[in-house]
Fold this sequence. Notes:
The protein is an alpha/beta fold. It has one domain: Vaccinia Virus protein VP39 (Rossmann fold). Helices cover 39% and strands 22% of the residues. α3 (57-64) links the parallel β1 (46-49) and β2 (68-72). α1 runs parallel beside α4 (75-84).
Amino acid sequence: MALKRVDYDERQYAVYARARAVLPATMATWRQAFARHAGPARPLTVLDLGSGVGRYTPALAEEFGGPVFGVEPSSRMRAVAEESARHDRVTYLSGAADRIPLPDGSCDLVLLFLVWHHIPDKLAAAAEIARVLRGGGRVLIHSTFADRTRQPYWHRYFPRAREIEAAMFPTLPDVVRDFDAAGLHAVTLERIRQRFAASLAEYAARLHLRGISTFEHLSDEETTAGFAALDAAVAAETTPQPVDGDCDLLVLARDPR
Length: 257
């Protein structure tokens, strides 16, 4: 299945921060995961590659002491970050995964949070990440992997989403192979339990903003039918329950130089 490239300057920039808001407990979960795999040294220079609206960028500065560079190709997503996710140790820069505007060996840690599947030339991106990473540095990739069992709650209302995401996301072996070619090897893959919303009603309200890029590939008919079924489930819920799900975090390392 051939999928069009999603232009985040077109619509997503206006809804993304609200649609993909991070609960405080979820932020704490991810910060702890990042810290576990970054090692004990502080401060660390961090690259948040594909930083979007800066959902995690200030937290990286707080966790690792900075400086943190948020590199984002979408000018409108970056503008939202500069307005709403400011931090005195964060700098947002125009750039992309295959043209990172930072010097060789300048970063201790690189985070790609739901970014890798958007990158057209993955081999070039892996080589560029290796270029800016210091010896002994780590790369953290949160992504869906097409060969890993995963069915988010919302998929039950939009059944073709699974087919779309199978075409959208790379497999884990593909990602490992691309980074091996750049001299970065896989250290571990951790499954992390994440809370997406405190209730189904909250979850549905965010989904209605269509801040998940999969929605860009669904028809209007599929979207309308899916939200009608989801809204019916919200109306039928008598005792609100949180919406949780499992996520993958792939950790790669560069040998000391």
